[in-house]
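[job 0412] stage=complex_fold ligand=aspartic acid status=START
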Amino acid sequence: MSLIVQKYGGSSVADASKILSVAGRIGATKDSGKDVVAVVSAMGDTTDELIELAQTISPQPDPRELDLLLSTGELVSCTLLTMALRTLGYQAISLSGVQAGIRTDTTHGKARIHRVETERVRQELELGRLIVVAGFQGATEDLDVTTLGRGGSDTTAVALAAALGAERCEIYTDVEGIYTADPRIVPEARKMADIGYQEMLELASYGAKMHPRSIELGAAFQIPIYVASSFKETQGTLIHQKADERPMEDRIKVTGIAYDTNVAKITVRSVPDRPGIAAALFEPLAQTGTSVDTIVQNTSVDRTTDISFTVSRTDLPMALAQMETVVQEIGAGDLVSDDTLASVSVVGSGMQNTPGYASRMFRILADGAINIDMITTSEIRISCVVKEEQVAEAVRLLHRGFQLDEEP
Ligand code: ASP
Ligand code: MG
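[job 0412] stage=complex_fold status=DONE, emitting structure tokens
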């Protein structure tokens, strides 16, 4: 029997009636002749509430204890959903992450999955049961419970789909699919029928609400991921390896506009211009897992340079503290930061080698009187750092300017 992995997000299981309706959907898939492994997030804002509760006890809770605490959120939703399936007359069993064989490294709070031991899940499937797995969690070799990072249930679902050889992974959520831009900002944004993994990865890391690691896993194991509403019966978006029939060089196109408001900039002034300085600046950040996005270095006449880079706003306090030490060590000048910025990106395939995309983006922003602070490009995106207060307008202008509101 072919197998589908279905993931239901926190808002889809936020209360008892929603859990019952999700059970109905899973049951319907089973009735259509498929095996189903369902993966659930914690109900509603449970994870936030548990984190808050922990912090009222201890400002920086012990990571191992916090993980075990957070894992309870998904245990609640997966057991309740299983009870709901049973009341509907289905044979069903819930499994925690450990029971479902999710083995991870020991990085509490953002553990990475090493492997999935599938024996138990396979046994249950053979008994004809529906299986509901607690998302977002796994365990180390020592059976300490870990969590995969906020939003990590998507990654649980795709990992299970890959390990079990599922036909596809379906992600049910409170939006209807993937759009050419955030529909809350751009009312004429279009829902896409499908999108490639790489482009989705750019859109996911820039605001659309999927755990980026789940897309990477999907790409690595070629698991088609279908994203759709858990409330409506409308068609969603399929994330897959896109087979493109158009003539080669016509395939270059803009897929969507992404943005991110979790952006802060750090500038280190008067950095001595000699080999090893960039390494000295960025190594401490890498060691603490702070990822740096855009980096700009300006050479000045007096053999010193200014280096600016962006980090997520959440990482800013820690990054600044680290930079203060480094600045003293290397004898640089001032350290300044700005947390009123945002980034806006044009995402599409093959943009880097196509002249004209970057200049068109800059023209559109210029005509909208939007100042560009920093620029980065990759093979499939061009990003500009702008003032946060102008980012929504930038998204709208670019969406229109690249004609994304027109049917392709
Ligand atoms: N409940 C976890 C969170 O809120 C995991 C998830 O929702 O996927 O981050
Ligand atoms: Mg959640």
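The first helix runs from residue 16 to 31.
[job 0412] exit 0
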